[in-house]
Fold this sequence. Notes:
With 195 residues, this protein is of the alpha/beta class. 29% of the residues lie in helices and 22% in strands. The chain contains 5 helices and 7 strands, in the order E-H-E-H-E-H-E-E-E-E-H-H. The chain has helices at residues 10-20, 45-60, 97-107, 170-176, 178-188; strands at residues 2-5, 26-29, 64-73, 115-124, 132-140, 156-158, 163-164. A 7-stranded mixed sheet has the order 2-1-3-4-5-6-7. The longest helix is centred in the N-terminal third of the chain and has 16 residues, at 45-60.
Amino acid sequence: MKLVLASNNRGKLAELQAMLVPLGIELVRQADLGVGEAEEPHRTFVENALAKARFASAHTGLPALADDAGLCVDAFGGLPGVDTAYYATQFGYEKGDDTNVRALLEQMQGQDNRRAAMVTVRSPQDPEPLIAVGRVVGEITRAPRGSNGFGFDPVMFIPQFGQTFAELPTEVKNAHSHRGRAAQQSLARPPEGRR
């Protein structure tokens, strides 16, 4: 079975593909099918995930898998949330993983409350979309640690493991990350009416 990933993020593709290969599912980035990024005008992860999945499916004719994820920092009242991908741009940096980490660490200087959660929502295109939410709570480190993963993985410390996501082996991260938890939920239950 082939699904289109409603994202052009290579990190997301690698993580999700690793989770889906055992099920015989081939995941293809929308860019590889000539599809650009969808607009994300909504203020919730669920609405943006649905918009991305519907956009990718409409432009490819394939079922789509969308993931809208963000970092929610307690000290910032839950921000950057749905604006995570563009977090660094509000501080004069270009959009990117490294600049997002740099901007976050600069803004958190002097903050003792470093609790944060990574949240992901996944939904394939469907008249009755299957929506799974994965959440993992940790703390923001004071400096990047590790070289695995992408995004905020080098600064997301997971107390259960005593390491950041970027320090964990890929299979451990994938099993316990926000994206991994959402995938496990998605695979554990079929959409309503299809049991």
